Amino acid sequence: xxxxxxxxxxxxxxxxxxxxxxxxxxxxxxxxxxxxxxxxxxxxxxxxxxxxxxxxxxxxxxxxxxxxxxxxxxxxxxxxxxxxxxxxxxxxxxxxxxxxxxxxxxxxxxxxxxxxxxxxxxxxxxxxxxxxxxxxxxxxxxxxxxxxxxxxxxxxxxxxxxxxxxxxxxxxxxxxxxxxxxxxxxxxxxxxxxxxxxxxxxxxxxxxxxxxxxxxxxxxxxxxxxxxxxxxxxxxxxxxxxxxxxxxxxxxxxxxxxxxxxxxxxxxxxxxxxxxxxxxxxxxxxxxxxxxxxxxxxxxxxxxxxxxxxxxxxxxxxxxxxxxxxxxxxxxxxxxxxxxxxxxxxxxxxxxxxxxxxxxxxxxxxxxxxxxxxxxxxxxxxxxxxxxxxxxxxxxxxxxxxxxxxxxxxxxxxxxxxxxxxxxxxx
Length: 427
Prior knowledge:
The protein is mostly helical. The protein has helices spanning about 1-25, 30-35, 45-55, 60-85, 95-110, 115-150, 155-160, 165-180, 180-190, 195-205, 210, 220-235, 240-245, 285-295, 305-320, 330-350, 355-375, 380-385, 385-410, 410-420, and strands at about 150, 270-275.
């Protein structure tokens, strides 16, 4: 029943976004996803990653058949495009086969499976479709932010960022000094964040085919909830980022051409108008939130996975700052946001005990306090960086500490250790 309710809610949400996008004369997430059944997809890697998630419920023999079918369909599409001289100018020339295989298994689940096997296969299909459709949903959300939020709060955030020493300007100069190699590495990490999440999720879901059930909590849940709730904050706190508000990418809409060489002066901030194209997707930094979630979920994996999670987090932080997509205070908010979502989901699994309720309430309060301070105290934060800078880091660190301590209580090993051992009695 829970999965049915979740599916109905997700489908209703997609319809609402489709209608909203149509109001602006553009296709919504459902239309864009349906087009990729025939036309070149925007990200073939993401479609194959979604298919990989779906295949966690299959046996190895079924996986090989599904992968071979996907590749064969993609080859057929390539031959047809070559025959009709259809050029792929946007996106990837592969990925259609993966989508067809995912949809094909939905048909198989309905027509050829019964009982628990049908439910399990439908869960796998739903997991794969949620990943690929989540990308389309995010694109539509960004479109809505650009159309409905004509004024930005970048001046407030840039002023508050003085408390942290304007890290985007500093890292931007460092990335520029490293040349194309550093930029290409960080760019790859930034773009392929979802693929990294799938790799971690595949490790967590590696036993689904044998146990015939999904674990109670895994990375995909956190990843999707972050992507669902994050854009709502964009609507409340619209920010475009330093490379647009203070750099050449902003064109005539930019305050000045300052990024990354000259930090902005400390002045009284004002709302600033901006174009109807650039997404207002900075506050909080969802890339930071997603990378934080990846880091958390790799802590109990093998050493190579732990190293990969730490690398992806550090590289993502460097990319978000170094490319001018985010201010430093965005990243602080992104970490707190990720831990709030993760704590809420884990508390839901553990029955909302006292420690979980306290952690979620505290972390949500800290997140709200950060947004309020960025909006109403930016000048004070800029004029007293020795006070507000450590306070920002301390607030984030307190949420991290609270999560670590509470997660230890949720650990099955810790729970078993807390149970008193039976002592023999004299008779």
